[in-house]
Batch of 4 targets.
Target 1
Amino acid sequence: MASAIVALAIFAGSAARVLPALLAITIQQDRGLQPSDVSLPITLGIAVSAGASPFAAYSLERWGVRAPLIASLALLALSLASTTYAASPWHLTAAWGLGIGFSGSLSASLLGAMAGSRGGAVHCGTRFGLFASMQPLGSAAGLLLASRAANALDWCFVFQAAAVGVLAMAFAVVLVPISRRGASPREPKSKQHAASRPKEKDWEFWVLATIFCICGASTSGLIDGQLGMLCMGAGLDLTSSADVMAIVVFGGAIGNVVSGYLADRCPVRTVLALYFVVRALLLLWLPFTGFSLVELARFGALYGLDAALTFPALVRLMSGSLGTRRVGRAMGWMTVMHLAGGAIASAGIGALGLAAYAVGFAGVGLACLVAAGLVVLLKDGPAQGAPPC
């Protein structure tokens, strides 16, 4: 029951967090703002989520899942509700950049990595994939429902309804007992430091950090932050843009489960390098599609599947290279790099504008080829029959 509630909380939070990216242009036009007034708060939110991720990981280790999850959902509900009263760019910066940003630090990947790391190593990837799949499923549901509700009613109603739904989810977390198994006993500081960053593994840490940064640039930066604006800038209406984004995240839900299964049964380095090569080819292909609805939908289906395939494999690779103790805290720092890469890519491509999207997407595609090369330098994740991860 507790696992189901956590999964539903991930689903509800993900459904609500897609609203700024989906409705940014609608809000800009309704409030008479400039494009940068809505794009910068979204980018700031990604950066804030990155910076707060290690603290979110520590809170899960220290207090378990319940209290941090309730606080995250409550802050998200407040931020959504306050968006309807936004009258200036500063209001959006506070609501999206700070409120939604801090609430997003308790991500599905962080919760999934800690929950998936319990028990035997054989099924760590599968469990992580199942938890992580709730995020794209929630995003897809939010995109499809919100786009149609915004057309039928208005965007203020969408944000208010989302705030009520998230707040109801927070009360559900309050009412259902959740085990504190995620919390870790306190250890001497010297042991904590030794377990989290052994000196002989510094190079592996930085290689992994670079891979996570490139992964974030090619997912959070391109898809979460910019794809909706790209679709509408190419002439698609709100509903069609939402459908393309929903195709991406539906593909991501399938990819998380499939990749978790494969990561438990195949050489992790091989499949992960292959994922990055395919992603690079897709990004290099996109500028030549013409940005029609059919071509963007085809790209979205393939890219969403590939984008989700990497995370369960990355968690296994991180476990094999850095060690399996304190995987939540390690995941917190890797999430910083992932979201930092997303913020850099989102800001860079947003500054280039629609006319130069091809340059930005191609540049990130070439970076994915670099990530594929870095993967082969690391150790595979724990094999079947290994001690618990």
Target 2
Amino acid sequence: MELIRGPYNLAPRHRGCVATIGNFDGVHLGHQAILRRLREAGDRLGLPTLVMSFEPHPLEVFRPGEAPARITPLRDKARALAAAGVDRFLCMPFRPGLAAMTPQAFIDELLIGRLGVHFLIVGDDFRFGRNRSGDFDTLREASATRGFELERTPTYQVDGARVSSTRVRQALAAGDLAGAERLLGHPYTLSGRVVHGDRIGRELGFPTANIRLRRRPTMDAILVADVDLGDGPRPGIASMGTRPSVGGRKALLEVYLLDYSGSLYGRHLQVTFRHWLRGQEHYDSLDALRGQIARDVEAARAWYGLS
């Protein structure tokens, strides 16, 4: 899959495609249904498939206090889109110029002029352009005059309700990993590169690999997690959140691998969350925290069936 960062990296060879537009956070089963329809249209018309998304999320720009937690960072989203057969991922920087673009300019300059869209699939509730004034009806009028096909996204239900990123976030926040897996179509997974931390885990006797989370996390929890270093999953335990016992403010994913020794700095890890142990809690002393971590590790070992 080709990742295109912004409209100014679009080249003449990128004209002519079938496209969809959305945040695609989590690339859940509903998204996957859209991508299948996109792939079918691409095969029928003999054109590449393109997903347009925005970075950062528009709410993170206009109303950051209301912005939802991120299910997947950009790298994981791109990997999931590629796995779904997407040919091109156009990541649009959400900046004032884009936010101020009128719906007609968005259609004429971007969809038609730069992308040459032949087929577009979006949801009934899709809004775009200045003050979110463009909608599905706007696109329907344009499709009739500019000659591209327009389709509504299919409704995809699990457990009697529509699958959405909001439902995935709610399941994760409640510790319902099985429910999130039913909506995603796979266990919840995050990946990232290990960075240097404050070495508190090492001081406590449980050295952790630290992965920074650039956005608000979906969970504040301690979880059993499979950790893949590139050679297959290994048993581990993960802490996701702001670490209230050590005065943490920035979100962090910390991973402790069971029965492993060696440096992980700079390595890229894939962390698959398997079982919820407990929520993040505050402890009055490092000794109390050390004791709880030891109990969490024993619980993880029992879950894996390790002696």
Target 3
Amino acid sequence: MRALKRYDRRGFTLVELMIVVAIIGVLAALAIFGVRRYLASAKTSEAKNSVGAITRGAAAAFERETAASEILTAGANSGTASHSLCDTADAVPDGGPPMGVKYQPDTTEGEDFETGTATGGWKCLRFSMTQPIYYQYHYVRGARVPGVTTGPTPGTGVNGFEAGAVGNLDADGVNSYFTRGGTVDTATGQLALATQINIENEYE
């Protein structure tokens, strides 16, 4: 009877405790990694959504018919309406991507996203952001967003554009890029957009 009672009161061995501690450590490491990846994904969704909105703005601007303002004499015809892409917009913010911090866009007329005309810049795209942002945003007509090396090449000259976001969430000097472009088919006059956003170094 005494032997049975002593057996019932036996505790955990050192090996068992070490195994439990090791398992807890592995689970904690996985949890930390998962939380960090989740937070990074939440930040990159800003860039993906915004690049998509800029692209849609460029497509909508192209679909709008534009015509020169004219004063016609009796019996004269106006010039024909045309479709054209918006001209290049200034990068926001202009000093490069925020380095692991947020930038508050200036909503004053003539600053940041409040620049451009009816035919060029952010006003032509009808795109604006008023909340703090993690990325620098671009819209470039006829060329690539600076620093981008992969993805479909947009049309050159007046026949293409690229919208993009450049970021550096961990401030390590390596940028992430989110871009989407489009090209006007000169034969049909139709605008073709890239099927999806091209991403380089997503979580940098």
Target 4
Amino acid sequence: MQITVFPSKVKGVLHAPKSKSSMQRACAAALLHRGITEIYEPGFSNDDLAALDTIVKLGAEILSNTSEKILIRSIGINPVSSEIHCGESGLGIRMFTPIASLSDQPLRISGSGSLVTRPMHFFDEIFPQLGISIQTLNGKLPLDIKGPLKPANITVDGSLSSQFLTGLLMAYSAAEASDVTITVNNLTSKPYIDLTLDVMKKFGMKIPEVKNFETFYFPSAANKASAENIAYTVEGDWSGGAFLLVAGAIAGGLKVKGLQADSTQADKAILDALDNAGVKLNITENEIDVIPGVLKAFDFDATECPDLFPPLVALAAACDGQTTITGAKRLTHKESDRATVLKEEFGKLGILVELDGDLMHVHGGTQVHAAITHSHHDHRIAMAVAVAGLIADGPVVIEDAQAVKKSYPEFYRHLVSAGVKVVEAVESNLIK
């Protein structure tokens, strides 16, 4: 699907999308919770839908499903299918695989798109230590597993992703882990573990004692609260909201609602980047007012929040001078080789992006040019070039534009409601 974004000023009020990080963790916790869960303000991105499908196949029952609330009943892990498909969700495959291994049934866990090329050797290394048999395709999908998981003292590498640890923490908790420790070396994206622990706490799960994000100790004594019914409200998404905030910063100003100022989401750090770039922000409990100013190049460390690279590059393109973003090595195993793709696609727009090891240099302040770009089936690339198109000297075409459905299916519709001219090549309900 092809979308064309025309140079436009933005104005008005937009609501940030719902956080798939929050929604998917809530789905996993609802599956493990023995009782009724009410998930309010749920998300319906492709990743969210894949999570709902996964928990149903692992034994949960969806009693009702509306845009306001999803009602789920579960008795814990009780697979009704031997085939679990996580779509294209990296969090889904890494989180649900340890959870699924709580079952003693043989299960095949698979995915699609770029997920089939992403490394899963973590499970080959860790699962045998937990009594789980596993077979992979040379460290890639599909994963054939047979549990049940038996909690034990293990040491894991956290440098690739924190998502593996999220799954282990939830699985250990559900397995009533006692007097065991997960030791983690080189953990990245620590705020996402904060989010995991926060969800676990809200669902009354057993919480480990955490020391410096290096050890996660599950004591012998239970430290969880029991509750038959759980109510959980899905947070607004700082990852998707970052694109709206950048759009307001470079193209006229916006008010963005639905982002929690006290969120543990890593991508809340977009506020620091905007401040560094000279953007004025008026932040209240329920709204962020983005007030454009004179934009300047900035330095920013995105090692703990690599999903911010695409909106940061769009912001840097509008800033006068060279912006340097640290953490580029975290981008290799995303939906695309994201650092290389950002260099390629913004190069088409006339913006020079240089890669230097872990550093990305963006030379902004020059004119963004009209061009035909491609998302590389990466939702964040599609959104980044669309935002940059707001200040281009002509229309910016995005091929494979439907990639935004992975996390933010309403993205183009939201741009339209903010006054942006967006045209679809073929009717596909992306902007209506």
